[in-house]
Amino acid sequence: MDLDFSKEQELIRKSAAQFVAKECPFDLVRELEESDDGYSKTMWQKMREVGWLDLLIPETYGGFGSDFMDVVIIQEELGKRVVPSPFFSTAIIGSLAILESGSEAQKAALMPKIGDGSMLVSLAQYEEEGSYQQTGIQMVAERKNGHYELSGTKMFVTDANIADKLIVPAKADKDDDGLTLFLVDTNTPGLSVSKLQTIAKDNTCAVKFDAVQVPESDILGTIGNGWSALEKMYTKAAVAKAAEMIGACKACIDMTAGYTKERVQYGTPIGGNQAIQHFMANMLIAYDTIHEYLYRVACMIDNGEDAGLEASILKAGANENFKFISERAIQLHGAIGTTREFDIALFFRRAKSWEFVCGDTDYHHEKIMERCAIEMPGY
Question: What is the pTM of this model?
Answer without folding.
Answer: 0.95
